[in-house]
Amino acid sequence: MTPALEEYLTSHSTRRDDVLSALAQETAQLGDVSVMQIAELQGSLLSLLVRATSAVRAIEVGTFTGYSAICVARALPPHGKLLCCDVSDEWTQIARRYFAQANVEDKIDLQIGPALETLRRLPQEPLFDIGFIDADKVNQQNYYEEVLTRLRSGGLLLIDNVLRDGRVTDPTQSDPSLDSVRACNDAVARDPRVEVVMLPIADGLSLIRKR
């Protein structure tokens, strides 16, 4: 995926509005950490999938400065709810400001703390229609299991950064995050509980449907 081709795809998809543009610009000013923000194309896809599935209950693991949360929350109906799990109060303070600007703060329940602890406090029953995982990669498979357990049959789960800059296919490359992503990718592909399509969007996005 060349930058020119990615820009072509983005420019021929629904574009972000002024609130998301301002958030992207502020996040970019944070420096190297800004790479944790999802791509514009991913945000557009998230919104489309929430609306297409008529989702009401959503969960996000990894909120950062709030771009993906806004994309999801805006697409939910007025009575819809999004549970956001993040460990950083610093980054989510930015998110809270933009939740207010986007008029979605009433739809969002932001829980600060280790995401696995937040998830494991939830009942083990189908609480959610759609989920998005974009947090620390070492726990990618743990997040997958905890969210899938709480996803309704027919619900969707998206996992970001499944390609790790293309390094997943390079046997000479190894680190804890990369190894964990590979293991999760392999487990999802073999999981009889789901069907999955891995998409070459940004750093790779797996689209998973629970059977």
Extended strand count: 7
Question: Helicity, in percent?
Answer: 40-55%
The gross shape turns out to be globular
* Helix-strand category: alpha/beta
Kindly estimate the percentage of residues that lie in beta strands according to DSSP: 15-25%
The whole-angstrom Rg is: 16 Å
Main sheet? 7 strands, mixed
First and last CA, distance = 31 Å
Helix tally?
8
Sequence of strands across the biggest β-sheet: 3-2-1-4-5-7-6
Q: Please trace the helix and strand order, writing H or E for each element.
A: HHHEHEHEHEHEHEE
Indicate the mean pLDDT: 97
Low-confidence stretches: none
Question: What would you note in describing this structure?
Answer:
By secondary structure, the protein is an alpha/beta fold. It is 41% helix and 21% strand. It contains eight helices and seven strands, in the order αααβαβαβαβαβαββ. The chain has helices at residues 3-11, 18-28, 40-52, 67-75, 89-101, 115-120, 140-149, 176-190; strands spanning 57-61, 81-86, 108-112, 128-133, 151-160, 194-199, 205-210. The longest helix is centred in the last third of the chain and has 15 residues, at 176-190. The chain is globular.
